[in-house]
Specification:
With 130 residues, this protein is α+β, with helices and mostly antiparallel strands. The protein is 48% helix and 25% strand. It is built from three helices and four strands; from the N terminus they run αββββαα.
Length: 130
């Protein structure tokens, strides 16, 4: 009787290990596929003359964006099926220039660096003994 239970337990353990191996394989596959797709998207979205500076959503399928076209800044309203020019801005009319700093930064920031920044922003866990 105990040999049957032992065989059943061993079989269950092997099934568990098999499921874990498959799970790890899928996670690794997803990681590399995401990294590969991100590289493709990055190459597609790299433009020298056009860049979206800032976007704010106004509702369902509606947003306002500031687009840099050369040295001109355009404010456009984007709807589900239409785009309207709202205004043309000069560089002096913009308040925040942080988009220029991100452009100059290395675009190959590692996942570990991103997680480290996120960890610094999270609240610290308090000691229970205090």
């Amino acid at each position: 009787m105990s040999s049957i239970l032992l065989a059943g337990s061993l079989e269950s353990f092997i099934q568990l290990l098999g499921a874990l191996v498959i799970f790890v394989f899928v996670i690794v596959l997803v990681y590399f596929t995401t990294k590969w797709m991100g590289g493709i998207q990055k190459k597609r979205s790299y433009n020298k003359n056009l860049r979206i500076i800032e976007t704010i959503g106004l509702g369902n399928n509606k947003m306002v964006s500031i687009v840099e076209a050369g040295e001109v800044y355009l404010v456009v309203a984007i709807g589900k099926e239409e785009v309207h020019l709202l205004a043309q801005l000069t560089r002096d009319q913009l308040k925040d220039f942080s988009f220029e700093q991100t452009e100059n930064k290395s675009s190959t920031e590692s996942f570990a660096e991103i997680m480290e920044k996120l960890k610094d922003k999270l609240p610290k866990k308090q000691d229970r003994n205090e």
